[in-house]
UniProtKB/TrEMBL annotation:
GO molecular function, one term: secondary active sulfate transmembrane transporter activity
Protein name: SulP family inorganic anion transporter
Gene Ontology, cellular component aspect: membrane
Keyword Transmembrane assigned: yes
Membrane topology category: Multi-pass membrane protein
Main location: membrane
Keyword annotations of the record: Membrane, Transmembrane, Transmembrane helix
Transmembrane segments: 20-40, 46-66, 73-92, 98-120, 132-150, 178-196, 203-220, 249-272, 320-342, 348-366, 386-414
Compartments, record wording: Membrane
């Protein structure tokens, strides 16, 4: 019972000594990576950098206890940070006390939404967000995030907007005002991050560029030459915080809270599943929702902001040897020690280096390969990705994901409302009945037509099925019998039953017959309840196509 409430107890009670080395190594490496990233992502969210460190402490401990993944690295991520900025900046000035208060409320709302979904076992609803939508949204958001850091990279003032083209236009106008020191720090930091990742991946590149850039500012007094620095970072542990809330604030934040809750979970769960598959254990969607939900509630309670599992840090955590949630606990302890004793080291850290860390981190989220793959395999999925990508890039983060989801659902409904149906003919060399459009040598019959339906039948598609049945009879005056292969029909609703019943009665009055074969169990049960086995006795009792054709030949 306790293991169901606290999934983390499973690895705690069965901990193996030989896992300790990997967990220690991974915990240290992720902490080194998370400290500058956490501060950078907090800055991206319009928050003081120290809040990124606060969000990297208690939430990690909570997830380690309640989450079902043993290697997922929870904490601030770029995508969620941008969503926070997008959703809250219209209500208060970024960085202000009112803004921070609203962000704490947002973290609480995200946590409650995820926790509720998990407790109600509604994790399956995230399956309705297609992979194409997530990929298109992620790629576009990565570009938006990258360009949002131009102001720090160039050392100029740019408007807070998600419109990439507006940012580029304004940056081009201020080209003569660029702070060359900030630009040099940013560009060289990007180069170091890229080169170390490629040629020396074991070296903690974010830590290297932080030390390098901070030393430059300190040694050459670059903060006196226009280079913006982090400045004073409060030391000490995160204090208890209780968000001030109002009906108006909750109403205004609800759209972005739902977006963060769903997108954050989808991103996190996808990575958790990949690692769990490799390690041969299972992660549960509802447990993950509970773990992430409680982590976000704790972030709100301890002065943090919304968190989720990150792709890159989880990959690093796993690659560094993490075997259990102890790695996350070690990461949290090291960040707590940093908050207690080492915050003064960050005083001269330039904003440009944090911008560089963000830009390099999000570059990997731009997935051109996936777009090519989808267009090659299924063009409509490629277009779903493209629509989401363009909408996010031009209309903004929230509107982009909304349009992508709506477009994918419309495509889903269109597909289900237009079921695949095929006229069948006999192919001698295969001794089987196949689609006449795919097999030119398929033989058809003069008085009989065979139709296969490859879809559940329900109110939205039954009229198209009716039209196709009528077309089969209208093809020739000689056709007086239609055999419908139901092998691809796994469900039928009451509306479809009524429509088919009326159609079959109509054709019976015209002295024409419709036979059903290969009817699956659940469909047979529905037809039996509708009284079809009495009304259409002899027309639906055949196991397969060969049986009904043998009967008709007699």
């Amino acid at each position: 019972m306790l293991k169901k409430l606290f999934p983390g107890l499973e690895w705690m009670l069965t901990y193996q000594k030989h896992d300790l080395r990997g967990d220690l190594s991974a915990g240290l490496i992720v902490a080194i990576m998370l400290i500058p990233q956490g501060m950078a992502y907090a800055m991206l969210a319009g928050l003081p950098p120290v809040i990124g460190l606060y969000a990297s402490t208690i939430p990690l401990l909570i997830y380690a206890l309640f989450g079902s993944s043993r290697q997922l690295a929870v904490g601030p991520v770029a995508m969620v940070s941008l969503l926070v900025l997008t959703g809250v900046q219209g209500l208060a000035e970024p960085g202000s006390s009112e803004y921070i208060s609203l962000v704490l409320l947002l973290a609480l709302m995200v946590g409650v939404i995820q926790l509720s979904l998990g407790l109600l076992r509604l994790g399956f609803i995230t399956d309705f967000i297609s992979h194409a939508v997530i990929s298109g949204f992620t790629s576009a958001a990565a570009i938006v995030i990258g360009f949002s850091q131009l102001k720090h990279l160039l050392g100029i003032s740019l408007p807070s907007t998600e419109n990439v083209f507006e940012l580029l236009l304004e940056a081009s106008r201020q080209i003569g005002s660029i702070n060359l020191y900030s630009f040099f720090i940013g560009i060289t930091s990007i180069a170091i991050l890229v080169l170390l990742k490629k040629f020396a991946p074991k070296i903690p590149a974010p830590l290297v560029v932080v030390v390098y850039s901070t030393a430059l500012v300190y040694l050459f007094n670059l903060h006196e030459k226009g280079v913006n620095i982090i400045g004073e970072v409060p030391d000490g542990l995160p204090s208890l915080s209780f968000p001030v809330w109002s009906t108006e604030a909750i109403s205004a934040l609800m759209p972005v809270a739902i977006t963060i809750a769903i997108i954050g979970f989808v991103e996190s769960f996808a990575m958790a599943k990949v690692i769990a598959t490799k390690e041969k254990y299972k992660v549960d969607a509802n447990r993950e929702l509970v773990g992430l939900g409680l982590a976000n509630v704790s972030a709100s309670t301890f002065s943090g902001y919304p968190v989720t599992g990150g792709f890159s840090r989880s990959a690093v955590n796993y690659g560094a040897g993490a075997k259990t949630g102890l790695a996350a606990i070690i990461t949290a302890i090291l960040i707590v020690l940093t908050l207690l004793f080492f915050t003064s080291w960050f005083y001269y850290m330039p904003n440009a280096v944090l911008a560089a860390i963000i830009m390099v981190a999000v570059y990997g989220l731009i997935d051109v390969k996936e777009a090519k793959h989808l267009f090659k395999i299924k063009k409509i999925d490629g277009f779903t990705l493209l629509v989401t990508f363009i909408a996010t890039l031009t209309l903004g983060i929230e509107m982009g994901i909304f349009i992508g989801v709506i477009f994918s659902l419309v495509i889903f409904l269109w597909r289900s409302a237009n079921p695949h149906m095929a006229e069948l003919g006999y192919v001698g060399k295969l001794d089987a009945y196949r689609n006449t459009k795919r097999f030119n040598d398929a033989e058809t019959f003069e008085h009989l037509s065979i139709l296969r339906i490859d879809s559940p039948l329900y109110f939205a598609n039954i009229q198209r099925v009716e039209a196709r049945i009528q077309q089969a009879f209208l093809k020739s005056d000689k056709v007086d019998t239609l055999v419908i292969d139901f092998s691809g029909v796994n469900d039928v609703d009451a509306v479809a039953v009524d429509h088919l019943e009326e159609l079959m009665n109509t054709y019976r009055d015209l002295d024409k017959r419709i036979y059903l074969c290969d009817v699956k169990g659940p469909v047979r049960d529905t037809l039996r309840e509708a009284g079809w086995y009495e009304t259409f006795k002899g027309q639906i009792e055949y196991q397969d196509l060969e049986h009904v054709l043998d009967h008709l030949k007699r």
